[in-house]
Design goal:
The structure holds two protein chains of two kinds.
Chain A lengths: L1 E2 L32 H30 L9 H37 L7 H9 L1 H10 L16 H4 L2 H31 L12 H33 L12 H35 L6 H15 L14 H13 L1 H15 L8 H24 L1 H7 L3 H31 L5 H27 L14 H31 L32 E2 L20 H5 L3
Antiparallel strand pairs in A: 1-2
Chain B lengths: L5 H10 L14 H29 L13 H25 L3 H28 L8 H31 L11 H26 L1
Helix pairs in contact in B: 2-5, 2-6, 3-4, 3-6, 4-5, 5-6
Classes of the chains: A mainly alpha, B mainly alpha.
Amino acid sequence: MTQTVQENLPGSSPPPAHGHHKPTTWKTYFTFCEDHKVIGIQYLVTSFIFYLIGGALAVGVRAELATPQVDVVSRELYNQLFTVHATVMIFLWIVPAGTGAFGNYLLPLMIGARDMAFPKLNAVAFWMIPPAGILLIGSFLVEAPASGWTSYPPLSLVSGQFGEMCWILSLLILGTSSILGAINFSTTILKMRRPGLQLTQMPLFCWAMLAASALMLISTPVLAGAMILLSFDLIVGTNFFNPAGGGEPVVYQHMFWFYSHPAVYIMILPVFGMISDILPVHARKPIFGYKAIAYSSLAISFLGLIVWAHHMFTSGTPPWLRMFFMVATMIIAVPTGIKVFSWVATIWGGKLRLNSAMLFSMGFVSMFVVGGLSGVMVASVPFDIHVHDTYFIVAHLHYVLFGGSVFGLYAGIYHWYPKMTGRMMSELWGKIHFVLTFIGFNLCFMPMHWLGLQGMPRRVAEYDPQFATVNLICSIGSFILAISTIPFVVNAVWCWVKGEKAPSNPWNAISLEWQTESPPIPTNWEGDPPLITDPYAYGLKPGRKAIGAIRGSDLWAAKP
Amino acid sequence: MQGSTADTETMMNVAGTTAVDHHADHPDFRIFGLIMFLIAESMIFLGLFAAYLTFRAVSTLPEDQMPELELLLPGINTMILISSSFIIHQAEDSIKENDIKGVQKWFGISALLGIIFLGGQVFEYSNLDFGLTDNIFASTFYLLTGFHGLHVLVGVLTILAVLWRSREEGHYSEESKFGIEAAELYWHFVDVVWIILFILLYLL
């Protein structure tokens, strides 16, 4: 139900005089700019560059693992490679891209605001990221961190002070940036909605960002606490986590995972939201179960905070506690399943447009289900004890983080690229990108399930020769994956400059961000933004209720 | 802040707020944002408290090696901090009546009490017979009180910054009082954290 309401919104008529908004040129992106659209693109491009760096590190890891012997890199360098690879991918690519890039770009446009609630704070949060990334990656020049992205003490206390401190400082800066971002997202969603737009009328991405912001606000500070204690152990010589001095390393694990498990949801919830917004557009059908998807994001957010110790089943966690965390973890499959079934029901019987955004979205759903299912497997204590610290875990986490988050981020880029740049991307090269990514990804990570079940440990530079063939297949897959980014980068850069001009609404979408120019003007809309109470009203039949008005009883009332 | 053109001025009236530039087309949400920030802050303290309690629960340190803590000085310090919270609250009533002199008085006393608190803590540190790295409880004691002390320092600096700005005629008024409210809210937060910390470290 699209309706434009002309009412006197505070401050929107006459159009706001944003004196500091100069026309956006390429130079703007290198400045401290407060426009949420500029900041969103700054986040996206910066984090993608870090993704390429993290990918290069992964290629180094896989090159070493192509043969059972230590040949390509030394054991020490290998440890540094996988440590920095994981840290870059999580903290400098998926988190800033999912929340920072798409959150900043889309939220104000989706809820009819002119900007984020705190634009200056927003710019500060972005500009913390490049120095933190340079610090982390630059540590290779001296000595990179080498104790894994988890940095468990006592290993992290003996694996090199310099690299470890670079890692801690980098994470403290990135964590602060993330908290400042969350303050902005939550305030914007809760307070900045266009008058008349209710929470249950927002696009689902906004719900997902609300849930992710809550996690960022609540869990990230605890990681900061752990980092403070760890740095005291490293530099001052305290013994918080050092068992040799009467400390308790398991306390670090609890504090670390109290953030790092919710971090998984910080990385996947925004992508859930994006998929919920992309599928209906290209399936030309209303989203199935709007409220179920919206509230399941909140449920995941809540449950995500009380399951962290499932990473610690082998850390001497007592059986009763294991039982609690096992059951709580498995319960997360319920809200996640609600989403997956809703997405399948959304595309079921739709007039699918199989363009790049849709291919990556459907790739996301199918690959995420694989990761979700292995997630339920490793939630089970007896199974987890068997596969803990094996390649099964590596396979699982890449199916949720790459098959999930990265596929979803690609889908989001293809879908919103015309809005962001005012140009269309090449569909042909997009499809080539998808096929290469899909094949490379599965070739790389599917065999790792088998490796893990056979007992190959993770984080080792050399391994038993019986695993040689399968590891070679994984490495070939990773090289295909690396090559797959080339058509994407060429496509994205080329089309930004020379691509076909995009109309304001190339996908005939209903949600608010498409009801303005591509790219949007600095104030987002001339005059008042329209009020869109049902952003998913595709294939509307007369008499169909608006999403906010649907009740469970309608299921029974409806005639077959 | 640049850009407060005549247009912006008009808009400020429309929106009923005196906030600057880009805040002009919507109400002032900065207190809301500060509350979000304080939620994050309290989670750091919660994490550190939880770590401390776990250390206590699992530690095998003999009783006679546990750090001895005097109660008198921190007790006085606690009274100082709690009373400063009540005092800074008076500024809220003053600003409602546009009484900047009153705000300056209450903020001045609060800053002074904060400085006395910090001085008391430094005095306590210099008289303790254990050091930062002696054992896990000594370390946690210094870390928790030091981290809180850092927050007190930030609170004092915030109060002083408000005092500094209040010299300018009309900087704060009944309608424009974010700085005053924010400093007060932060001060209450620091106070509440101390009460929990005092109970955990000194009384339990």
